[in-house]
Design brief:
- Two copies of one chain form a homodimer.
- With 204 residues, chain A is mostly helical.
- Helices cover 66% and strands 0% of the residues of chain A.
- Chain A folds into two domains: 53 residues, Arc Repressor Mutant, subunit A, CATH 1.10.10.60; 136 residues, Tetracycline Repressor, domain 2 (Orthogonal Bundle).
- Chain A contains nine helices and no strands.
- In chain A, helix 4 packs parallel to helix 7 and helix 7 crosses helix 8.
- The longest helix of chain A has 24 residues.
- Chain A binds a DNA duplex (30 and 30 nucleotides) through helix 1 and helix 3.
Chain lengths: 204, 204
DNA sequence: TGTCTTATCAACATGATGTTGATAATCTAA
DNA sequence: TTAGATTATCAACATCATGTTGATAAGACA
């Protein structure tokens, strides 16, 4: 009901605007772009822009929301209830492999949106997405707050930030490893920490 | 030699502009601010702004650099060579306590710059600062790359992103814990992971 | 004190913004 | 395939922010 048929011209126009935005951000940074620049690149009239979006920021916000909603829905529809989100040494979680694979598919776009300085909204939304998976996984592993070493929110933020940081690093370096390798490394560092002979674990 | 006497009026003007910027970002977000807004708030003429900065972004960039340079120099001068940056269970590293204390002192400013959406430059510079400490600590602990479970750069990014995420969480929630508590939690989750009975460590 | 530096102020050209109304193109459904 | 509805185009507009300039005032410093 909520999805009436959308005029294909509208979809086309919005896609053109979004593509133009991504290109221009990469070329000259988000700040310097004007609505005029975007519509010129998209071969549309400037007034047309205002039929679809309030301003530059609105275009960016809506685009990021659409992209990340697709990501989340893709994961949900592929794994709906089938895969437990547990953390095990050297066995990368399939959802995380899928995550890196999806990002790889749209690497050009993710790279621009995640690694350009001054990209409002996208990074925080991406963080929310990751927090979703991580809090889900943590609740599955340990629903009892008392058995956590640190406040739950603290841990969730710690891991989502760490994972996002790694994703950004991967993109900045032009994806030097496969999705499976990345997911494996994440499991390993999460479980074992960074040192092979784990000098951390010397409990008193 | 590089620090000639700076006219106090210049310092005053720059301080006024920086303060105005921080206030306005908090009130209406970085995007919507104009140079006119900043100079009005600072009770300065708009032309005066251009005697000191190229544009809004230049003011922001220079301000963040100054703030973070002060932070780094403060830590260096307080601990110069005295404190090893090692990671031990339940014993928070003094540099990290100091870090949280410094942020607490300028919490209003850090909160705006780190948690407002769309804050160019500051977050990435802050990340660099953290990466500095972390890579220093990791090299002290384990200079041999072969004994790492994951690529060194991967681990450095993982931890700096995680730590920055936790700092942002702390600020967003209006510093609900003391710097010492925060530093302790960071050590604990880094060393032991999030679970008290560490179910992660079930090696095959 | 006088000199140098900086701030002030008004004014200007330029360019981006957001809106409007008339017109053309394109889609959808009968 | 055609008619009616939707959307895009285009030119024009007032408004606002920008960046700069030149003349003048105020403040710092030796």
């Amino acid at each position: 009901m909520s999805k009436k048929k959308i005029d294909p011209r509208v979809l086309r126009t919005r896609q053109l605007l979004r593509d133009a935005l991504v290109e221009l951000i990469r070329e000259q940074g988000y700040e310097k772009i004007t609505v005029q620049d975007i519509t010129s690149r998209a071969t549309l009239n400037r007034a047309t822009f205002y039929l679809h979006y309030q301003d530059k920021l609105d275009l960016l916000t809506q685009s990021t929301d659409e992209i990340l909603n697709e990501l989340v829905e893709g994961i949900h529809s592929s794994f709906d209830g089938k895969v437990e989100l547990d953390f095990q040494m050297n066995t990368p979680n399939e959802k995380f492999i899928f995550l890196f694979e999806q990002i790889l598919l749209n690497a050009k776009l993710y790279k621009v949106f995640l690694t350009e300085k001054n990209m409002p909204h996208f990074t925080s939304r991406m963080m929310e997405v990751l927090t979703g998976f991580i809090s889900e996984g943590m609740m599955a592993m340990e629903p009892d707050d008392h058995k956590l070493t640190v406040p739950r929110e603290f841990a969730e933020r710690y891991f989502s930030a760490a994972y996002l940081g790694v994703i950004v690093w991967w993109l900045e370096n032009d994806m030097p490893y496969t999705p499976k390798f990345m997911a494996t490394q994440l499991m390993r560092i999460t479980v074992q920490g960074p040192y092979a002979e784990n000098p951390f674990i010397k409990l008193k």
